[in-house]
Design a protein that fits this description.
Elements: H1 3-12, H2 17-30, H3 43-51, H4 63-79, H5 90-106, H6 109-123, H7 138-143, H8 151-165, H9 169-174, H10 179-186, E1 190-192, E2 196-199, E3 209-212, H11 213-245, E4 249-253, E5 258-265, E6 268-275
Antiparallel strand pairs: 1-2, 2-3, 4-5, 5-6
Length: 280
């Protein structure tokens, strides 16, 4: 997301005061995480946390870019009139787009990973491509050693780290993350009636339940506001580094005479290199 698209996002929602109030609150709560200055200051750890550095990788293998584009596309579809020749039930179609947006958003690894690593950075816990594993109980470490960690477990770690930093980040996730919405969408086990979101709870409907669409709409609104705030901060931070330090070599370790090169492309921070005195 670029600074221009973030500006467009704010302009597009300018006439939705509830959305803007939520987005502003989320933005201000998350903002301290995106400051590089810290009592544990290490610019390489900060940049690695922001960019999710995992090593060398060919272009076109970062799912973040596709996920972000999908969320933008779905968000646009929620806002524009749909052509009646293709959508004879515009209201129903927009609810379907909304729940797809919700499902895709809450499954995005990148948002959990960046926030967890930025919390780790400010707490002096260092960067890790898997920022959650260290903070799991031994039992959960054995359970999730070779399988994906579900969102609720990630949120629990983020909440604990946020408490240590006195920032209620985990509580923000709790405002919109709801397993009763996430699970049936992910497993295609839901029905949208005129007034309710319904889940059969399996083939025999023995765990069936329902949620008012008004509640679902509020959850989707909060999700859009949260992710809009996150993408806005992430974009602004990467743009700041590109504008002020892009494609420049900066002193990194004066004792060993290492230099840090900030890499940028199209006005956005894209990576970094450390240059050693021996030319490596």
């Amino acid at each position: 997301m670029t600074e221009d698209s973030d500006q467009t996002d704010r302009e597009r929602n300018a006439f939705d005061p509830e959305f803007m109030a939520l987005r502003t609150r989320y933005f201000e709560t998350l903002r301290p995480l995106f400051y590089a200055q810290s009592e544990h200051f290490d610019i390489v750890t900060f940049l690695a946390s922001l960019l999710r550095i995992t090593g060398m990788e060919d272009e076109g293998w970062d799912p973040y870019l596709e996920s972000h584009s999908m969320l933008l596309d779905l968000d646009h579809l929620l806002r524009i009139p749909l052509p009646t020749e293709f959508y004879d039930d515009e209201n129903g179609s927009k609810w379907r787009f909304g729940v797809l947006l919700y499902s895709h958003a809450v499954e995005m690894d990148v948002v959990y990973e960046v926030i967890a690593n930025l919390l780790r950075y400010h707490l002096g816990e260092g960067y890790n491509p898997n920022p959650f594993f260290k903070f799991l109980s031994p039992k959960k470490q054995r359970r999730y050693r070779n399988k994906a960690l579900p969102p609720l477990e990630k949120i629990a770690v983020i909440k604990a780290l946020g408490t240590r930093m006195s920032i209620p980040v985990g509580e923000l996730f709790e405002e919109f993350y709801n397993n009763k919405l996430r699970n049936p969408i992910a497993h295609s086990d839901f029905i949208l009636s005129g007034t309710e979101f319904r889940c059969r709870g399996g083939a025999h409907a023995y765990r069936a339940y329902r949620m008012p669409l008004e509640e679902v709409g509020d959850i989707i609104l909060r999700t859009r506001a949260f992710f809009g705030a996150f993408f806005g901060l992430e974009s602004a931070t990467r743009k700041h580094f590109a504008e002020h330090y892009g494609n420049k070599a900066l002193p990194y370790n004066r004792r060993t005479k290492e230099l840090l090169e900030i890499l940028s492309h199209d006005g956005m921070l894209t990576g970094f290199k450390i240059h050693f005195p021996n030319g490596s």
